[in-house]
Each structure stands twice: as structure tokens, then as C-alpha cells.
């Protein structure tokens, strides 16, 4: 990713930056609402247009913040950082309101960045509004380009100009696949703090206000253990407490982040008992067969607590995923953080573990010699043979005389025997039972 140019969309609030990103990418990547300040964190979307790879970056709207307005200052800092990292800036304004003092303030920031810029005038929804774009000549940032992000007018011409203005293409060495790690959990448990602690910069806005992160944010980064993509997500609340609109889309995007992850870090707050929502998130990741690590953040709050008892309570609360590792960390002090990424790689190796068929069937024979198979109505379950058919997660198919005879307790028995011998720490195992001759 380091060799791929980035294109940052910047501008004041409510000029249509997220709508433009969605239009250019052809997907609903960013949350759009007709409300100022909907976008806060930077949202990076890899793109390919006319044979050129680049990353399109959506940013929050810059605004002059009042003293003490933490979120406003944090958003402005995020925009400045996006411009610093960008190869090209799309400075977005809009025709209906016309040139405003806020546009002039953002233009000053753009000039100070020293980066190439395309002056874009949005919301030119008809030819009558085209002449409104001319007044933006006054900013001295080049020829204003009229578009309508909502209707798609001028979008292809803008992409053509973007590709034309990108720096010369650099040939990057082939890069191995990166481990996709989603950082998920309830609102305000410290997910963004963990992300920032991992990468050593203010990549995501951190605030004690629940719901500060709204989009799922991808951050490629190299660790000693290997290359990863860290996916920070919005906090997931109970379904009944999800507000319609912005938060509703944020929850959907968080669940999608889990869907595309290899390993999910379920972040918990050491200062609060685990909740039903914590187990719901972990259950969703389990059902999607993702690697799982329980990361108990704010461990600095546990100095006076009986850790053995606390850990037993955690094991009891998450007894439906006994294979998940539990790591105690503090994003504030850095305690325990060095073990999280290596643990994620270890879980991924377990997800890739493959058992040779002769070994697997030998294990099953010895297990059945210790534990009689279930029976019903005079019929006894017979396991004919087993074979592993997949990895990530490990998937094992058992061919039996009658799948209806398989009881969940017997399935759990087989899983326990597999884990005793082969580990599979941190990953679900899919067990499928098929009748004789089934494919």
C-alpha cells in the first residue's frame, strides 16, 4: 500500500464529500446523511480506474471549532493528516451555497499542504447552475470543475483528471496477503485507542463519547510478525438501542467488517462486567467462523482485583467459545499490547492447520474406543471415515451410517478430542456429518 498514491477529498461540512466517494467508487462505502459532521474519521477505499491503482480518502468536514470542542479539533487534525499523506487533493465545494468564508479557510489549509489540487464544485445539478462554478476562480486553485456527485454528472471526467494528475506509477514488489484483523466490540470500550496504540499515531479519533467511530476503517501496517490490515469498527449496541440513520449504517458496516476479517479482536472493558452484547458480538464472529481473541482492555483498572477469579468469570461468560484466547491489555499504558498481533498470527496458523486423513481416522478410532457412539431405536451410529475438506476455518466431514443419530453431545465430544490432539486454539471447527454415498 505504501507505493499506491492516495487522493484525499477535503472541504467544509455538507458539501457532499461522502456522496462523491460513493459515486467514484460505485459502492456505498461511506455513510451519507444530510447532516453536517456525519463523517469524522478518515475512510480509505482502494480503487482502480483506467489501469491505475490509488486509494480514495474521505475526510470529515473542516470547520472553525469553538474552544473546548474536542471532536471539531480532532476532525480538523484528521483532515490535515490526510492532506499530508495525500498525493493529490480534491478540494470540494458546492454551487448552491456558493463561495463561503469557510471555503476560503479550507483553501488556505490546502495551499499550505503544497500538494497538487483539483478544484471541484459539487451540486451542479443542472446547466443553470454551471455558471455558479466560475466564482471559485477567486480561490486561485485552478479551473473549477463542475460536477453532481448525487446524479453522477462529471464523475468520469473527474476520474480521468485524477488519473492524469497522479504521480508516475512505481513498480511495487509483490506483497503477500495481509492478515485481516477486525477490532470489534461495544461502544466506548477502547477500540480506537487500541488501533492508535498499535500504529503509533492518531489514526482514529479517540473520545470518551460513545459512538465517535462510525465507519469501518482499514489500516495496512507491517509488524515483526507480518503484514496486517487493522479494521477499526463502530461500536455495536443492542439491536433495540440502535438509532436509525447514521448509527444503523454504522452497525451494518461493523458486522460487514467481521464478515471480511480473518481474526476478530473482541474488545472488552475490564472496568465493566461482560454484557449480553459482548457475547452477542462474539457469537456473531463465531457463527461466521472467524478466528477469535478476547482482548480485555483497561487492565490497569484490575490492579486490586483477584485476577484468577476475574478470569474464571470471563471463562464462564464466554463458555460457548472456550477455545478463544483471553489477553489482558491497556491501551493507555501499553501493557500487554506486544502480544496481541503475534497472537492473531498464531490463531491464523491454527485456522490453516490441516490433519492428514490417516491421522484423523486413527484419532477417531481411538476416541470411539473410549466413548461409545450414540444410538436410537436400536440403531447405533457408525462413523465410516472422516476427512478434512477445508481450512480457514478447519472443516471436517464425517461419513456415517445415519446423520440423524448424531447428537450434539457426541459432536462436542469429537471436537474436544480434536482440540486435545491438534489444538486449533482461537478458531471454530466446522464438523459436518453425511450419510453413506453423500457428496
TrEMBL record:
Residues 5-170, 179-352 form the EngA-type G domain. InterPro entries: G_ENGA, GTP-bd, GTPase_Der, KH_dom-like, KH_dom-like_a/b, P-loop_NTPase, Small_GTP-bd. GO terms for molecular function: hydrolase activity. GTP 1 binds at residues 11-18, 58-62, 122-125. Keywords: GTP-binding, Hydrolase, Nucleotide-binding, Repeat, Ribosome biogenesis. It comes from the Bacteria. The keyword Nucleotide-binding applies. CDD domains: EngA1 (cd01894), EngA2 (cd01895). It holds the Pfam family KH_dom-like. GTP 2 binds at residues 185-192, 232-236, 297-300. Associates with the 50S ribosomal subunit. NCBIfam families: GTPase_EngA (TIGR03594), small_GTP (TIGR00231). HAMAP family: GTPase_Der. GTPase that plays an essential role in the late steps of ribosome biogenesis. Belongs to the TRAFAC class TrmE-Era-EngA-EngB-Septin-like GTPase superfamily. EngA (Der) GTPase family. This is GTPase Der. The lineage of its organism: Bacteria, Bacillati, Chloroflexota, Dehalococcoidia, Dehalococcoidales. The gene is der.
